[in-house]
Design goal:
The chain has 124 residues and is mostly beta strands. Helix content is 0%, strand content 52%. It has strands spanning 2-7, 10-13, 18-26, 32-39, 46-51, 58-60, 68-73, 78-83, 92-100, 113-114, 118-123.
């Protein structure tokens, strides 16, 4: 079993920054890609960013490119999302996700595990 616990959400003014973190606990050996998704009120969950097991491959939604950076620390089983230049339209519940395998396939929202979500609110 895998548990994902997010932290770092909150309220920030437009133009500000937040750093989300996700700690993964698993006793199952193997490599896994990780990602961040978000869901705004009344909208479907959408892809934000994913990162490969090695950390060498990261992919971003067009809406966050140049503003968000995903990173991971395999020694600590953590993944982070640094969010800069935040906009009101970034307001959503952000979910950490884990998918077995070295690479997260492009355009796939399928995850093997999801965190409980953390609220990010950007005021104008």
């Amino acid at each position: 079993q895998v548990q994902l616990v997010e932290s770092g959400g909150g309220l920030v003014q437009a133009g500000g920054s937040l750093r989300l973190s996700c700690a993964a606990s698993t006793r199952t050996p193997g490599s896994y890609a990780m990602g961040w998704f978000r869901q705004a009120p009344g909208k479907e969950r959408e892809f934000v960013a994913t990162i490969s097991w090695s950390g060498n491959n990261a992919y971003y939604a067009d809406s966050v490119k140049g503003r968000f950076t995903i990173s991971r620390d395999n020694a600590k089983n953590t993944v982070h999302l640094q969010m800069n230049s935040l906009k009101p339209e970034d307001t959503a519940v952000y979910y950490c996700a884990l998918r077995w395998g070295s690479i997260w396939p492009a355009s796939s929202n399928r995850s093997d595990y999801w965190g409980q979500g953390t609220q990010v609110t950007v005021s104008s």
